[in-house]
Amino acid sequence: MRHLITFQYIEAIARAGSIRKAAEDMNITASALNRRIQRFEEEFGSEIFERLPRGVRLNPAGELLIRHIRSQESDLRRVQSQVADLSGIRRGHVSIACSQALVPYFLPAQISIYRREHPGVTFSVNVRDREAAETDLSNFKSDIALVLEPNFMVDFQVQSVVPQIISVIMREDHPLCDSKEVRLRDCLDYSCVLPTAQYGVRHLLERAAEENSRTLSPVIESDSFDFMRHYALHEDALAFQIPIGLEPKSGLTYRPLSVKDVPPGNLLLGQMRGRALPVASAKFLQQLEIALQVYN
Q1: Contacts 24+ apart (CB under 8 A), 62-67
Q2: What's the predicted TM-score (pTM) here?
Q3: Which CATH fold topology does 88-163+266-295 show?
C-alpha cells in the first residue's frame, strides 16, 4: 500500500508526458515529483521513463510496471466492492467501452435499471471504435466492452455474441423504402453517408463491396452515427447503422441490408481475458448478457 501514491504519480506522468505538467496536475513541485520518481527507480532497480528533450515517456520496463499498477488497482477495487457487498450495500464503479450504437437507447436503459437497485454504483461510458475498446480492456481503463466487430480478440474474453444485420437509414419518401430489404448494389446508386474506416459498420460494407467488385464512394464520412442518421433527413442520402442503435424517428425509416450481400456483424460483449472483475462490474455484465438475449 505504501507505493500507492507513487503509482498515482507514475500514472499522472505517463498521461501528461511531462513531469512538469504532471506536477501541476498533482499540485506538487516538479522537483519534488522528479525526486520521488528517482527514488522509486532506485528501489525498483530500473529506470521506468525515457527522458526526452520535451518530456518523458514510459520505456519498456515502465510499460510493464504500468500494466502491473493497473492490475493491482483493479484487484483493490474488486476487494473493496466485495467488502461493501458484505454490508449489503453495493458500491463501486463500472467503466464501459462501447460502440456508438449502444449509447442512445440500450445502455441508458440498462444502467438506469441497475442503479435503481444499486444507487451507490457509479458508471463511466466511453465511446470507442473496435480497436480502442480492446485497448481499453487491456489497459484496465474499462471493465466491460460492448463493441461491433472487434479487431484482434487477443485479450477479449467473449461473454455474448449478438448478430446484427446492418440497416439502411433513409427518408420515408426515399424510393428504396418500398422494399422489405435492400440490396447493396441498389444503395450504391444513391448518395451514401458512411462511418470512417475504424468502425465495424464501415468494415463490413467495404468487405462486401469488394466482393461484389464495387467501390464505396461516400459523399460524406463521419465518426458520428447521430450526425449520419440526421443527415439522411436533409438529402436523398443513405446512412447505415446496426438495429440495436435505432428507434423510430419522424421522417426516417429503416430497412435491413440483404444478408446475401452483407453478412451480419457480430456485436460482442466481453471483458479482459483472465481478469476477475469487481462485484459491481461482474453483476452488470451478467445483466447485459440477459438483456442482449432478446436481440438474438
Answers
A1: 62/10, 62/14, 65/10, 66/10, 66/11, 66/14, 67/139, 67/140
A2: 0.71
A3: D-Maltodextrin-Binding Protein; domain 2 (3.40.190)
